[in-house]
Amino acid sequence: MNVAEEDSVVDSLDVDSFEMDDDEEYTGRGLNDIRFENFEYMDWIDNDYIRCLRSYLDDFNSGKIEDEELEAYRQKVRGKFVIASSNPFMMGGLLVMVMFVDHPDDIYSAWVYSSVDTETETILDYSVRSFSLCDEKSGLTTETLRELMKEHPEYKEW
Q: What is the rounded end-to-end Cα distance, in angstroms, of the chain?
């Protein structure tokens, strides 16, 4: 995604907002603080955001949902993927970079959002807000990716 595309995505998306009553004191705790405060190393590569993404791709591939952005890559986004990275996203939720095992040269970026009940500080639900092919290439083959996964068994195929 180039800068112009990113700007248009940002303009069209709902961003986490924090509203306070006049008598409420701001604690400095944002929604991502609530979402990720207890995340440890393994949580960044195995969590409900990634499960939501897997379900979304399964629904897309089975025809249950449509996604114009993904349609051009339908044959490449079948099968299992691995997590290249995951980080809190400034607009809320998790930004996940994935590579599909059968086509690991392509890197995809997914924004998975979660609603948060601020009173109970619990996550209510998850949704995929965007999924797109990145301009960068990994340079990996399926064989190389599988070798890396043998060296790092904590990374699993989703």
A: 24
Q: What share of the chain is helix, strand, coil (3-state, %, to 5)?
A: 30, 30, 40
Span 46-62, pLDDT tens digits: 999 999 999 999 999 99
For 93, which DSSP code?
A: S
CA distance 25 to 99: 43
Place of tokens 């997590």: 83
Return the structure tokens found at 30. Answer: 């944002």
Give the residue ranges of DSSP H helices in 44-157. 48-61, 68-71, 142-151
Distance between CA atoms of residues 147 and 135, nearest Å? 24
Residue 98 CB neighbours (<10 A): 25
